[in-house]
Amino acid sequence: MGFVEVKSRSSISDRQLVVDPKKCTGCRQCEIVCSISQCGVSNPTKSRIRIIHWRNEGIFIPISCQQCEDAPCMTACPREAIQRDTGLNRVVIDYDRCISCKICVSACPFGAMGFDPRDQKIFKCNLCDGDPQCVRFCYPQSINFTDPGRLQYPRIRNAALKYAGFGRKAHVVFSCK
Amino acid sequence: MALNRKLAYIDLGQKKTIVKEIPYEWRRKFLGGRGISTYLLFRHLPKGSDPLGPGNVVIISTGVLGGTGFGPFECTGITSKSPLTGLSTFSPVTGHFAGEMRWAGFDHLVITGKSRHPVYLYIHDGKIDFKTAKNLKGKSISETLGNIRKDLLDEDVRALVVGPAGENRVCFADVSTDCGHRAGRTGMGAVLGSKNIKAVVCRGARDVLVKRPVDLLAYQKEIFDRLLPIIHLPHAPSTFEKNEVSIRNMSVNSFQGADLDSEMALRHLIAESGSDLFSTRCILEWVLRLFQAGIITQKKIRGIPLSRNNIATHMEVVNRITANKGIGTILSLGPLGASKKLGKESLSCFPSVIELIQMHTEAVADPLTPAQRNISFPKVNNNAHEKSYPIKTTGMRVTDRWKSGSIDRRAMGKMPGRKASEMVANCLGFNGFHVPEDILGMPLFSVYEKLLDLVTGLRVKKNDLAEIAHRCYATERLLNLRESSIHGRPASITEAFDVPVGLRMTKSCWDGLELKTFQRLVSRYYKSKGWDRKSMVKLSFFKNLGIEDLWVLLK
Questions:
Q1: Which CATH architecture has domain B6-203?
Q2: Alpha carbon distance A165, A161 (integer Å)
């Protein structure tokens, strides 16, 4: 009988950026922190994550690269400069091949690819090599870096909680009767 | 270089702008933010100019740390001569405007003159455009913002907006940001309104350089981790839970039995009209009391059936204040201004002396510590905030727990420690950074020193920071002394209440002994600290501070 090796903890490559817009307060700390950590300057237009807001309605949605499995930017790139990094489960730009043609900027349906006019370079979220600064500084915990397997878990639990509440009430009503 | 920043001189009369670099010398002497703004105001404000006239100067400024990720602490400062006090004022407003202004390319905007027609300033990527605001005249804050966003086809612009109250020169009109943060006191809305400015709008994509980004992020994280547990907890929810939100025009400190819908409607009306909520509600309560006391007659209020429980009548009074019509023409002057027309005895009906002082003092750097202020203004009847202002008669004792650390106290020129630290924070572009030092793990001045080094690479020692604070404060005080000598006004609010009006007003709530003690304390305090006219207005004093170029302007 052989032993089955069980992974007790998920490796870092399993994790993804997950956004919960309900928790976002629109403070834009993630934008500033991202631009400082990636470019060494404070400038939200160079941030890899952007907050899109409908302030009057209180809606704030952080948008960044979704690291798509079948990434349109990767398909569109004529020089195959955009590749998948399986180690961190992310889409990365190979700047040795990139000719800054900006086709990927047009191809991305989320607008998550950007172009830095000063350096003449394309940029996108690189997950800060496994330690996303936007997550570190998001105190409302709107942006998380978690396993895909746990993506829906908080919502499932919320839904279950409501159901449990209903069940408890029903139990009380029936037992009283 | 991180300090290679620009300031713009905007002449509204001729619609011209001049952009200049901020000299390094100014940084060394005043750092930025409030410091440089005060210096610029001293240089450009004509002696004795009318606060609501074209001669007044408005300076919108950010500090050297603006837009570098200090979120809730970052502020924009509006510096000008206040129509309420007639003295120089720095009115801070938190929010995202400071960062956006820096990304648009400017640290300071010096606005002079008066535009012929209503305009709004659109500042973007190093350029300043004058856009017509004829269609925005009389529009509320949110309407104005909506129209500007439509006009510029940009939802992400940041703005400082003046409401109809500011347009009509209500002396306590405020300036609102697009997020609803407000530069509330001292009537900066009226000053901008008097220049025919409806809004200042920013949008930028320029870099703000950071000297040591990795270290800065690590230190920011450490600061936030230490601060956020104490900042988040005691705020919004608890104020409601503890019934600390004043209703019925500050006369009741509890929600119980209140008609919340009409309360909220009144608050909304005041906010949208661009009046300072706190001041307006104090004045509403004052009007009710004056009406009850018969000082304001039915004839004067022209048909408003004033009643405490009828919020609709309160709204009508607010509308008249905003429009500066009828009774509003008197009330829009602020309590001290209105009392000159209504009679000195009217001030005795004002709901609270402390509120009155706060309306006139918020931004004026007053050397008296909170404890010393409490000596002067003990409890008043019907004071909604009575609980938060304990009466102390401890004389000159400084009660704030400010530790000087290794700072040479002489560098601060006998400023109270807390005032000095507030001044440096304002120069850096922070507001409300009142953090206990044991939570930060080091004295505040050491934190400022480190942050300056990380963001700008400027190595300023603690003693130099203290000296800068003293220089900035002294410049403000000297400007106030200059302006007060023109108008015959007192040069500080604490002195303002030494005059007979103050005596009369406060007699009901003070016993004679306390008043005399306070008056003696104030004069002794100013003299001992060297902040009286005799000690300050000397060429040697200017030379010691390194601001001898201002000596000519003082004379």
A1: 4-Layer Sandwich (3.60)
A2: 6
Tokens 């037992």 correspond to: A175
Name which residue leads in pLDDT, B533 or B131. B131
Strands A114-116 and A121-123: antiparallel
How far away is chain B from the Cα of A122, in angstroms, using its nearest Cα? 16
- pTM value is 0.85
The CATH classification of domain B246-361, taken from the options 1.10.569.10, 1.10.10.10, 3.40.1620.10, 3.50.80.10:
1.10.569.10
The shortest C-alpha distance from A11 to chain B (Å) reads 25
Element (H, E) at B542: helix B539-545
Cβ-based contacts under 8 A for chains A and B: 64
Structure confidence at residue B517 (pLDDT) = 53
- Give the residue ranges of DSSP H helices in B203-249: 213-232, 236-241
Q: Do B71 and A42 touch (CB under 8 A)?
A: no
Asked if the model's pLDDT at residue A78 lies above 80, the reply is yes
Question: Whole-angstrom Cα distance, residue B474 to residue B413?
Answer: 9
Determine the residue among A24, A30, A32 to mutate to test chain B binding: the one whose Cβ has the most chain B Cβ atoms within 10 Å. A32
B206 touches A at CB < 8 Å: yes
B82 has a pLDDT exceeding 70: yes
Q: Quote ipTM for the complex.
A: 0.83
Q: What is the pLDDT of residues B496-513, one digit of tens each?
A: 444 333 333 343 333 333
Out of A29, A43, A55, the one facing B103 most closely (by C-beta) is: A43
Q: Out of A136-140, B234-238, B339-343, B457-461, pick the least confident.
A: B234-238
